[in-house]
Amino acid sequence: MKEKSHELRCTGCGARIAGTDATSNFRCAQCGELYEVVYPWSSDGANLPNAGALRWLWQERRSSTLPIDQSGVWRFRDLLPILDDPSHAVTLREGNTPLYELPRCGKIAGVDWLLAKHQGMNPTGSFKDTGMTAALSVAAERGFKVVACASTGNTSAAMAAYAARAGLTSIVFIPEGKIAWGKLSQSMDYGALTIQLKSDFDGCVRVLNDLVKRLPIYMLNSVNPYRLEGQKTPALEMVEQMDWQVPEHVIVPGGNLANSSALGKGFEEMKRLGLISRVPKISVIQAHGANPLYRAMQASGGEQLEPVVADTRATAIRIGNPASWKKAVRIIRATGGWVEEVSEQEIAQAKAEIGAEGIGCEPASAVTLAGLKKLTRDGRIGREERVVLLLTGHTLKDPEYTIDFHRGTLFSNQEASSLRKPPIVLEAQTEAVLKTLESSIQL
User: Fold this and answer.
1) What digits encode the pLDDT tens for the residues 364-384?
2) Does any domain span residue 157?
3) Where are the alpha helices (DSSP H) in 71-200?
4) Burial level of 155, CB count in 10 A (0-12/13-18/19+)?
5) In this structure, are residues 284 and 254 in contact, taking their beta carbons and an 8 Å threshold?
6) pTM greater than 0.85 (yes/no)
7) 175 within 8 A of 196, measured Cβ to Cβ
8) Of 40, 94, 139, 373, which is most buried, counting CB atoms within 10 Å of its CB?
9) CA-CA distances (angstroms) from residue 344 to 159, 319, 387, 410, 427?
10) Biggest alpha carbon distance in the chain?
11) Count of CB atoms situated within 10 Å of the CB of 414
């Protein structure tokens, strides 16, 4: 494969352009749809690389001391030749995240083998790092000095960190009062110009789209197709960690919906290259208060999507008008997956159950377990099938949520849970502590 050979193909009309010819908002000039990155081997069956050689090469790079090889994105650079010179990659050694077994959560959900690919173990604490290293590297190589994004939190943290690493100026647009402070503190710490708009996420996107048409600012939201090239690499990591075996199901949170399509692209490319023999079913789970894709699938089978006013404590997926919904629908249909919605109470309980495994995740990640329970309950996933949950963010992304849950103040009608562990306030006396221990735990 030629390392710099790629084009952008419109997902609507199929028009192809050079990467450098994309408009500032990454929309097709002919039909207005989004682009995807394609390579000569994406459609041409000739001159495919040797699958065994690629597996060996990717494993060998793990023992390298080069930053680009230590990255869980760029060690797979043979499948994302988007830079003219790979040495221009801006990396924080992202990727190579753990694949955890969740035996107790599996028992609760009704499956024998449940795993979690924890993308919250990335440098800034979310899956956005894998996409940001790719897209920001392209921006830096092409000479952009200013990058920007609209964000519910995780994208802003990732962009600000990678921009700081590359010496670029970053601008973050966030919805006022609708973002977890743990995430906002990151973008400020990394030196971003942070602008809170009196709007929701979709309003921030609208303003950003206007600005990039007027100023030399490079947009780093997930409409940028290079983001998805980085975000497809957890699919490669996942099957590599499973000794190149493919799970039956991968379950993903649904917000702006680029992540499900990115993972699907990764699995489809691996199958085309002979690295795997089949692709897993990819299912998307949304919060009930931010469920435009779920509604679209119920109403029209995904033919049309009506935006909603998003409202959920799972702030990372509080998005009412997802940009990549058509890409997600295609992957869900192609893999035979499903779209489900879960309630706020179900999200909170699932988050506590993942935490009780010693893993932890941000609220948006927990929709995967909550959704799995529904999919097993009605027989769409069988007990013997292997399931991987994609946990997108670290538990420290939204500590206020966790504290409110354990204090019982998360919702006005919060349901009782044996997993609530609020702090117990006692006098500083040994006898008082002993009495409490005797009633609380087995010694």
Assistant:
1) 999 999 999 999 999 999 999
2) no
3) 103-109, 128-141, 154-166, 181-189
4) buried
5) yes
6) yes
7) yes
8) 94
9) 29, 15, 23, 10, 36
10) 77
11) 16
CA–CA distance, 214 with 216 (Å, rounded to integer) = 7
* 69: confidence class by pLDDT, cuts 50, 70, 90: very high
Strand partners for 335: none
- Give the N- to C-terminal CA distance of the chain in Å, as an integer: 62
Q: Is 193 helix (H, G, I), strand (E, B) or coil?
A: strand
The neighbour count for residue 112, using CB atoms within 10 Å, is 13
Enumerate the β-bridge partners of residue 197.
175
The number of folded domains in the chain is 1
- Residue 304 is assigned to a structural domain of this protein: yes
Which CATH number goes with the domain that contains 105?
A: 3.40.50.1100
Residue labelled with tokens 């999507």: 305
Q: What's residue 1's pLDDT?
A: 41
What tokens were used for 261?
Answer: 């399509």
In a domain, 385, yes or no: yes
Rg (CA), the chain: 22
Range of the domain at 275: 99-125+227-407
**44 pLDDT above the threshold of 70:** no
pLDDT the model gives residue 5: 77
Give the β-pairing of 169-175 and 146-150: parallel
- Tell me whether residue 30 is in a domain: no
Return d(Cα 348, Cα 313) in angstroms, integer. Answer: 9
Taking Cα atoms as reference points, which of 393, 25, 328, 35 lies closest to residue 205?
25
Closest C-alpha to 323, from 204, 420, 421: 204
Identity (one letter) of the amino acid at 400? E
